[in-house]
Amino acid sequence: MLLGARLRRLRESAGIDRDAAGEAIRASGAKIRRLENGGSGFKRRDVEDLLTLYGVTDAADRAVLLELVEQANTPGWWHEYADLVPSWFEPFLGLEQSAQVIRTWELQFVPGLLQTPEYARAVIAHGHPGAPASEIERRVALRMRRQRILASPGAVKLWAVIDEGALLRRVGGQATMRRQLAHLAETAALPNVTVQVMPLTNAHNPSARRPITVLRSAADIVPDVVYCEQLGGGVYYDKPADTSRFWDVLNWLGVNAAPPRETPAILRRLMEDLEPVPAAPTTRSDGGGGATDR
Predict the structure, then answer these.
(1) Structural domain harbouring 43
(2) Cα separation, 224 vs 25, whole angstroms
(3) Do 102 and 63 belong together in one domain?
(4) pLDDT of 257-277, one tens digit each?
């Protein structure tokens, strides 16, 4: 998707139509459309020819895009979970793992990158009723594996704004929620993680009625991608005219949410408001949450 979007922008800047681009790689305009939409695999030779056609002669720029060819053709580590990951969500995993900056807004749940295993298990179990325990555990393992980008060398910079309602919702019960809030406070203290809470009493933005995630690659030559999850799947936006509108919403949320310095106090208050945790039951019950793969 990233490579296709960049090639489309280069073609349009060069004033070349899809049919002419297709002829340059011994194909058709329809194939160029599939390549630009991320719906077809790339051959290194084809991309080299297209870059030459589009006037990309800088060695560094060509190297970045040709490296994307290799990445696009190499299965990611999440390939072992292919039976669990819907086709519309797989691009998100690749974008997330290669991002330099991730900004996200969440209304219903704690973002997946900040969830504890117990909280994730409750959300996933509710979203996949009837799934065997082994499948639930694999889905939890996938979510936990994704979180490694927060602590890896060159860790991603994550900026999350979370609606207070998501933190009041007792997903998985009191004990699970208490541990989740404590984990959120601990993670928010990392130098590469910023967490803000949008109080229920603060202003409301009609444009922020659903979750938003913006992913920015480490390479300036690659466009930002916005991901919005809906009931029937995920929608991706990469055109600047579209992504700029989402950046405006996220910037508004960052200004109107409680400042990051207040996050620890807010989380402590929410933990104190939880009723005392009763003795652990003899049987486990996974409850709460909703259907989301994030």
Answers:
(1) 2-72
(2) 27
(3) no
(4) 999 999 999 999 999 998 765
